[in-house]
Amino acid sequence: MIVELVTSALLLQQPDSARSFFKRGDAWFAVALVGGTAAVAVADERIARWTRQSSVQGDSSRHRLIRKATVINEMPLTAAAIATWGVGRLTRSPTIADVGWHVTEALITTEVVSEAARIAIGRARPRASPGDAFAFKPGKGLTRFEYRAFPSIHAAVAFTTASALVEEIWMRKPGALPYAAPLLYAGAMVPGLTRLYLDQHWASDVFAGTLLGVFVGSRVVRYGHGHRSKLDRFMLGAVLLPTDDGTLLGLNVTY
Question: Which one of 15, 146, 179, 187 is most buried, counting C-beta atoms within 10 A?
């Protein structure tokens, strides 16, 4: 049994050249992302007018509450993921360190992709262009915050976190998934909705950020468990081995 574990650990250290980050079916995902975003964009201005109604905006206490909720963004989520990784390393818990590290990787990937797209596309936020959802100034987002609307990074990082955690739960405790997944995804909806309420994003920005987050979160975790890079080995100092029941077993390995 020990020999089998060590052999499996050594095999997991080698890159799996037969697998790649992108899959053949990803083209359909891209079609869904573009097509869905375009369909939602048709209603962007109508949705924005609805969220601006006094009945939706409510009083100052509601506004303060929602503004507080919008602090759930890329900075605290990334900090929390890094802290989780740190706790895992300090306590020598391969599982905690592995989850924290993969969520960190997924969040950083999402942030880089989102910011690059926001800068290049240069879509005006609703507050900057309240009557025109199709005001674009490519490249303007580099210097002007109001031209960094698409996609919503709040929605993207929230769903990246939820999707990455759902994937980790599926690998370790699949029986908990029917309970954990709805809670995680419901919570991930909050940041995007707050941005609509605060007139910071169009609905299509939030939609695109949501799909981007789901894709990156799940894919980074799956790819990370199939490909142990030198950086992974350095950051984790352990490998996770699949057991007979489909869960993962942490094994400390000296590299």
Answer: 146
- Residue 39 is encoded by which pair of tokens? 């369909």
One-letter amino acid at 175 equals G
Distance of alpha carbon 230 from alpha carbon 212, whole angstroms: 27
Q: Which of 219, 150, 205, 213 has the alpha carbon at shortest distance from 184?
A: 213
Task: Return the percent helix, strand and coil in the chain, to nearest 5.
Answer: 70, 5, 25
Chosen CATH of 22-252 out of 2.40.128, 1.10.3470, 3.40.50, 1.20.144 = 1.20.144
Q: Please name the residue ranges forming H helices in 24-73.
A: 26-41, 44-51, 54-57, 60-69
Q: Give the long-range contacts of residues 239-247, CB within 8 A, separation 24 or more.
A: 239/9, 239/12, 239/13, 239/94, 240/12, 240/94, 240/95, 240/98, 241/5, 241/8, 241/9, 241/12, 246/171, 246/174, 247/171, 247/172, 247/173, 247/174
pLDDT at 238: 53
**Cα–Cα distance for residue pair 116/9, rounded to 1 Å:** 37
Other CB atoms within a 10 A radius of the CB of residue 240 amount to 23
Residue 237 in contact with residue 92, Cβ under 8 Å? Answer: no
Q: Residue 147 has which token pair?
A: 């031209």
DSSP string over 95-151 = HHHHHHHHHHHHHHHHHHHHHHHHHHH-BPPTTTSTT-TT-B-TTGGGT-GGG--SS
